[in-house]
Amino acid sequence: MSYPKPKISVLMSVYNGKKYLKEAIDSILNQTFRDFEFIIINDGSTDTTADILSSYSDPRLKIITNPVNLDLTKSLNIGLNLAKGEFIARQDADDLSLPNRLEKQLSFMEKNKDISLIGSWAKIIDNKGQFVKNNYSPSDSDFLKFQINFIKNPLIHSSIFFKRDILKEVKQYDKNFIYAQDFSFYSKIIRKYKISVVPQILIKYRDHAETISRTTNKLEIQRENAKKIIFENMNFYCYLDWENFSLLYKALNRQKIGLIALVKSIILWKKIFQSYLLKENLNLVQINKITPLYREKKQGIISQFIKNYFSFIYSLLKLFYRTKSSVSQSDCLN
User: Whose CB has fewer CB within 10 Å in the chain, the N or C terminal residue?
Assistant: First the structure.
């Protein structure tokens, strides 16, 4: 007997997530939009995650248990292969979706047929659920594409909602990235599809000590993965060897550089920008959208150099006058 396919597949992977899991699951089951399946991959959890999952009897839940811990990327790919919905929504095991999230995101996609993936604004909360700040991502597709390609990932993974059809082209998350797999995923998507952000707060993103982006060792791996992704993105438009890329990446991230590196990084950044305009064949309106971001990063490189340079000069002068004062006092004593 065949059953009708759900409109949306919600995808979650959880590993030892007992602390926030029930709250996260309930935030999906209590959505105002009801036509969805909820695929949860228990990634070899050793805490009471399995007991929490087995306490639910909602027929929309589809629970898959990995015999051992595989990692988030592999687990999400298992879920993608099982998803039957026209759209797929992500949900992390420690975040919360507001009750109208799926309804709002589906409505946005149905009104904007040219968009294939969206995120949303978010409310950042701490480990106790207390408000920290709001996160407002840009919504313009051209701006987001430029930002993802060359600067950073502006989307919160737990907020994304996309057409399942794009998987025919993108396939799945890159298994080579244990962390920042979402950044890699978006980078592939934007080469063929338009993305956007619903300018409304639709999720609560929990920023706590156990979050991947906050754990020191995992954070270092995530940063290194992000660097590799931007390297691949830049090389899609303009060839850079690793040495020149690393120099530019350092400058764009406002790290300390010398005068020669400053000049070289500005030239490289201009080269990347011009190659991007040429390959994307952007019109004037699109160019005007991303040019301020290009200029902002260029000015950031220069201002950081000036700050570092004058800080160094100031330190030398301070040391000089301190030494001079010390010598003068010594002379007086003699």
Answer: N
The residues, any chain, with a CB within 8 Å of residue 305's CB and separated by 6 or more, are: 257, 259, 262
Q: Which two tokens stand for residue 198?
A: 């619903």
pLDDT at 210: 60
pLDDT tens across 110-142, in order?
999 999 999 999 999 999 999 999 999 999 999
Q: Which two tokens stand for residue 143?
A: 């701006």
Q: What's the pTM? A: 0.89
Residue 226 lies in a domain: no
Residue 187 lies in a domain: yes
Give the pLDDT score at 329: 45
Whether 190 and 270 share a structural domain: no
pLDDT tens for each residue of 163-208 = 999 999 999 999 999 999 999 999 999 999 999 999 999 999 999 7
Please check whether residue 69 is in contact with residue 47, taking contact to mean a CB–CB distance below 8 angstroms.
no
What DSSP string describes 186-229?
HHHHTTTSEEEEEEEEEEEEE--TTSGGGSHHHHHHHHHHHHHH
Domain-embedded: residue 16: yes
Residue 53 lies in a domain: yes
Sign of the CA dihedral 271, 276, 279, 284?
negative
What totals of helices (H) and strands (E) does the chain contain, helices first?
11, 9
Q: Tokens standing for 50? A: 């399995």
Q: Are 293 and 277 in contact (CB under 8 A)?
A: no
Can you tell me whether residue 27 is helix, strand or coil?
Answer: helix
Range of the domain at 243: 238-310
pLDDT one-digit tens code per residue, 289-306:
999 999 999 999 988 888
Domain count, the chain: 2
* Amino acid at residue number 48: T
Q: How far is CA 236 from the centre of its chain?
A: 20
Helix (H, G, I), strand (E, B) or coil at 139: coil
Sequence letter at residue 108 = F
For residue 262, give every residue at least 6 positions away whose Cβ sits within 8 Å of its Cβ, in sequence order, or none. 251, 301, 302, 305
